[in-house]
Amino acid sequence: xxxxxxxxxxxxxxxxxxxxxxxxxxxxxxxxxxxxxxxxxxxxxxxxxxxxxxxxxxxxxxxxxxxxxxxxxxxxxxxxxxxxxxxxxxxxxxxxxxxxxxxxxxxxxxxxxxxxxxxxxxxxxxxxxxxxxxxxxxxxxxxxxxxxxxxxxxxxxxxxxxxxxxxxxxxxxxxxxxxxxxxxxxxxxxxxxxxxxxxxxxxxxxxxxxxxxxxxxxxxxxxxxxxxxxxxxxxxxxxxxxxxxxxxxxxxxxxxxxxxxxxxxx
Length: 266
Fold this sequence. Notes:
By secondary structure, the chain is α/β, with parallel strands linked by helices.
């Protein structure tokens, strides 16, 4: 896991504690002191993986997603025994893999990298590291017409930076392309395994008395909370905290997390 700046909110605390309560070891990489990390977490210096001198954000949203995507690929190459998880991934049961892969479909056309493990010396991870090492590179997974436009701009001396491209340029689309390119899509787990609540149904988890449990299956390992959108939803609809009788509200009670003690940051 990686946390870039500021205190954790109840949403990140909930996800972290869910892993601890499932008996998993949790390593949280940080660039600065984070005051409210749950007890039992191994806190590590993120600079050991990727320095802030290479920090890339998404221009339109201000999100640190490009940096976090690059970070996880480098981390997986350095620590072959770790499974990456975003701080909005809730652990249902302990993660395990016997083939070096741990990732899953989030939609019929896309494999998400929110929970991720790849063989440390494999071609997929090597390609992802190579592609994210050049912020002005042209992603091979883009449509041909778009690649031609980007190449023309590059040839004219006006290359387009990764931070100015569409959301998630180094994330799920990159992973999906690399797995397909090397014929390793077969290792991707079915959607209910890691992303049982689709993006379109994400608000169910924050509304009172919604049957979220019906979306979970016996082989579900994790639930993705769609963090950026879920934070905005709670702030705009519920004054920053989920209702007690919502799915996430009940999970907070289960794991002993006080939403008021760790508020969402705008």
